[in-house]
Amino acid sequence: MTRLIDQPIEVHGAVGPFCAPVGFRWRHSEYAVQAVLDVWTDTGAWWDGEGEVLFFRVMGGEGRVFELVRDSRGGWRLYRVYD
Amino acid sequence: MPERGHPWHEDRAFVHLHVHSPFSFLDGACELESMLVRAASLGMPAIALTDHDNVCAATEFARGAAALGIKAIQGAEVSVRDAGHLTLLATGPAGYAMLCGALTAAHLGNPRLQPALDLGKYWGNGEDVGGNLIALTGCRRGLIARSILAGDYPAALRFGCRLRDIFGPAGLFVELEGCMLPGTRGLNARLVELAEELGVGYVATNNVHYLEAKDFPTHDLLTCVRTLTRLDQVHPERRLNAQNYLKSGGDMAASLWDLPPVVIDRALRASLDIAARCEPVLRLGQVRQPRFGSPDGESAAAMLRRLTYEGARTRYSEISPTIRRRLEHELDVICRLGYEEYFLLVWDVVAFARRRGIRCAGRGSAADSAVAYCLFITDVDSIRRGLLFERFMSLERAELPDIDVDFDARKRDDVTRYVYERYGKDHVATVATYNTFHARSAVRDLGKAMGFSPAELDRLAKTLPWGMNARRVDSAFEELPELRDSGIPAVKYRRLAAAAAAVAGFPRHLSTHLGGVVISSRPLTEITPLQMAAKGVVVTQFDKVGVEELGLVKLDLLSLRTLGAVDDALLGINRGRIASERLGYERIPHGDPDTYAMLHRGETVGAFQLESPAQRALQARLGAETFEDIVASVALIRPGPIKGNMVEPFIARRKGQEEVTYLHPLLEPILKKTYGVVLFQEQVIEIAITVAGFTPGEADRLRRVMTHGRSHEAMEDIGRFFVSKAAARGIEAQVAETIFSYVVGYASYGFCEAHAAAFGDIAYKTAYLVRHHPAHYFAAILSQQPMGYYPPHVLCVEARRRGVRILPPSVNRSEGDFVVEGEDAPAIRVGLRQVKAMSPPVLAALLEARIGGPFLDLANFLARTAAAGLDTRIAENLILCGALDGLADGGNRRKMVWHAGPLLQAARARDLPLYRSVREEPPASPQVHGGEAVPDFSPWERLRYEYEILGFTTGPHPMSFFRRRLAALSYLDSARLTRRRLAPGARVMVAGVPFRPHRPPTRSGRTVVFLSLEDEAGLIDVTIFENVYDRYGKLIFRDPAPPLAVYGRLDRRGNGVSVRAEEIHDLADVVGGAAAAGGRKGAETAAAEAWTTKPREVET
Fold it and tell me: What is the percentage of chain B residues whose pLDDT exceeds 90?
């Protein structure tokens, strides 16, 4: 099952060619990034002024998969959760 | 992409093998030249071009790459049945021929615009692709990548095996794209695995669709246009990110970040290895001669000579030494260049047309050739006119000549069919043309994608000048008063304007060239893929420039409706005449004084090439007296001579107002016919020969070099060369320099004299017909519409001005076409084909039904035509335009409309047969109740309906409704304006329906608008200078244009008058209320005051 979240998060650490975070904090809980499964870019609604964003699909603990997105200003959001 | 500074970004050698240009039609967002320049600047030794299912850009690509010193690898991204996309690269000419064959099969074997190559059918028989083609497995839309993404590795493997069987292990590579899309990471790893399992290589590509990431919005917009989607809508073909740009080798390596370094190295190196295996596929400029196939073993050269002299004996009563010398010279050049087959080909086509009685005439520089004249390809005697053959062909130029022939538009397709039958459909095809983005189309297409409403796009697009470059949309908001004052907010459209600029000139779709046909001795599919065009003809994928570069022989079989009109007019004129009294086209007398008197008055509406406002003004000033004057007229009113300031000096010298001088006596014989002004390209060549001793071919080459705008330095070099050669012939350096400056100034503006002469012949003859047989000639050109400069309503006004009545359409008297009625006072009867919504089957049925006798009344008419498909719309249109006025119950059109629907329904319900005779009594018509006391339409309403249905009125002209009021206000109509002996500069007030406002290029570069006002008596020409245009541009260019009132000053130019506008107003504001703009109340009031009912033409 997948849920759309789209909420801001704090990240820490940076690893790999895309500076993927090693962990993030969401709703007062800490989540470690165990593996980066996929990385892709999305130009978004460029006609409305949205900038390019970078998606990370990461493996957290307990088999949960998260999609994190970094916007063009460096802000981070949790976009989707796969339970 | 990995951050900048990452080691993977260091420079790597790489070649792009999957690249799309704008010729992927709405899927390529960067000009080809820019791609090539970027590739060269990145140090890439080669680049491949792989447009969707075509090689349209192959010649431009080959030329551009060679100029930059990089290798052009020609390929295509081919749509494969049930397998998506496959990238194919030709390794050389043989591979290119294979690719062309495959693309042809993909196109012609499927519905138009849905090409799909059936791999099994096409290459399933073990045909040896043999290293001629290299296949790359394609992007994510290829079956292999798609299957893996769908989790079906076995399907990917199966298809991979099929491809390997066809292309061989060395001819197949798996494409790896670093496109940063979801799933790429896993996909690329599996693709490498697949390649290893298949025993084939893998190669990095980037499916390039634009130059830089910042160009992505343009590509996204084009995708929306292609898929008919708005930006805010989702569509699977819209790409998620901006990764498909022309990346450097380092960026390519970085984009494959998820693969082991050794794999990345191998993938990049493979691109270089593949490039090394490919060679350029085209040898440009090599002429591929067609084979005419002369009969009985006679050589082509012998046959050409025989036919030339046979023709010469017909054209000239005696073949003088001069004629013989000229013919021998031309035949020598033609044969030495190997073009005798080409000439025979053209001769054969023209001979076919003449046998079939299809009127035709060669045009263009071919009229410089005496051989062409003797072969009856052209009707211009180049020897008598002193025309230089070298303007058409020369040993030095050694290019394939281009012969254009105009045919009667109605029968041109018969000629094309003959060519197909004669040479075979594998050897003949129509030339393509590319429909490209201009301002209007860019605004409409991109604006729709951006979410603008159709109404606002329509308003904006119609305000932009037709044909304007899409780059100029933004500046148009400031430059064009009609846009600036339109109330359309520029800010809102800035982004649209920027998007339009980005796609300026990009091809939108493939279309059909007007008349170009290629003929090849080899099967065409060895040289160009063929596909079906919208017109239902098979076309090459190259346009006329491309086919010429490929060396294909092209014939231009053009349509000229004027020729059909001339034929029809002569048929009508000669009806009932005995043979000796018949007027033949070739026997129209030259030098007719009445015709020239008409030209002097500028009354040339209807005359080919002489009827535009600029031409009418010229004729009124020039006072043409000879055919040479007409030839000069055709050449003078062109952008070049106008901008080059040739018109005024020519007129002044022709009228004796300025002395004719020559810089050197050698120039006199060359420039005498144009009063010392360099007007023709042939004169430029002659000057170079006579003054500087150039050979004819060198001189023509000089002319072409100067015509194509060389750099200042290059021109100085040529100038020094010219002067030194002239000096060697004893001409003073200063004189030679001045002569050269004239030549430079005029070379790019000069017109081809042979072409002007060819057109001048038709121009004079049509002017003769206008003068002496206006009824027949105007009936003919009205039947041939659309043609000429003016629409039917202007032609009707002009015909009336010449005393020819226009009779309304009549279901009992009209034919399909406009025909002449009456002998002593011939009038033109409007044809039924002119009625809006009239269809060929209904017309044919109506005419057939009438054979049994005239239609009696509405019920009788409907009963006898209902079965043929006559519907309510056509019936009402016929009533509203007066075609049933002559029936027994005609007269009240509103009442007839009221009755038509029920009567038609009843006729259909009874399933009546098509009555063939009026004597057969149809069953009683149903009673239609009501409508008895219905008043008829007002005169104004009748006029409006007629205009809407016919495009003109056969009753009073709209301006006649306002004439009494306008006269009271001292407005002059066109007849009075001409007749009154007003002094130049006199203040005048005129009014009329504006027609065709346009802004031609001017000598000063400032904007001047010309338009004509049509009233009941003719046309008034109005000139609007920039300051006035600035104030009233919005009104002038409003669409639809309202009738205008113009205050200004009279200009007299020779025998012609025009008005120089100072103020322009909507006529509605002058006559009060909303009258002129179409409001009913004011119009009816005016009509009640001004119009008296005249008896209509009564059916007898």
Answer: 66
What residue has token string 């100072």? B1062
B residues 272..301 contacting A (CB < 8 A): none
- Distance from CA of residue B455 to its chain's centroid? 27
Cβ density class B398-414: b for 16+ within 10 Å, e for less: eebbbbbbbbbbbbbee
Give the SS3 label for residue B1099: coil
Q: Could you give the ipTM of this predicted complex?
A: 0.93
pLDDT above 80 (res B747): no
Instruction: Check: CB of residue B368 under 8 Å from CB of residue B388.
Output: yes
| B594-628 residue pLDDT tens | 999 999 999 999 999 999 988 999 999 999 999 99
On whether the CB atoms of residues B110 and B79 are closer than 8 A, the answer is no
Condensed to tens digits (0 to 9), the pLDDT of residues B187-242 reads: 999 999 999 999 999 999 999 999 999 999 999 999 999 999 999 999 999 999 99
Encoded tokens for B1082: 């004011």
Check B240 against A40: CB less than 8 A apart.
yes
The answer to whether residues B596 and B619 touch, using CB atoms and an 8 Å cutoff, is no
Q: Which residues lie across from B1020 on neighbouring strands?
A: B1013
**Domain spans of chain A?**
2-82
DSSP-derived secondary structure letter, B807: E
d(CA B138, CA B727): 65
Interface test with B, best of A18, A46, A47 (most B CBs within 10 A): A47
- Whole-prediction pTM: 0.84
- Option in A17, A19, A41 nearest B257 (CB): A17
DSSP state of B867: G
Positive or negative CA dihedral for B189, B192, B196, B198? positive
Say yes or no for a CB contact (<8 Å) between A52 and B220. Answer: no
CA B144 – CA B148 distance, rounded (Å): 6
Which residues of chain A lie closer than 8 angstroms to B258, CB-CB?
39
Token pair of B1037 as six digits? 């260019």
Q: How far apart are CA B573 and CA B566, in angstroms?
A: 10
**DSSP 3-state helix, strand, coil percentages of chain A (rounded to 5)?**
5, 60, 35
Tell me the C-alpha distance between B1080 and B1061, whole Å: 29
Taking the C-alpha atoms of residue B207 and residue B27, their distance in angstroms, rounded to an integer, is 11
Pick the residue with more confidence: B402 or B433? B433
Q: Which two tokens stand for residue B701?
A: 């080459």
Q: What is the pLDDT of residues B479-516, one digit of tens each?
A: 888 887 777 777 778 889 999 999 999 999 999 998 89
Is the separation of the CB atoms in B716 and B744 below 8 Å?
no
CB of B7 less than 8 A from some CB of A: no
**β-pairing, B1018-1024 with B1056-1066?**
parallel
B242 touches chain A (CB under 8 A): yes
**Interstrand relation of B507-519 and B530-532 (parallel, antiparallel or unpaired):** unpaired
pLDDT digits (tens, 9 = 90+) for B986-1011: 999 999 999 888 887 776 778 889 99
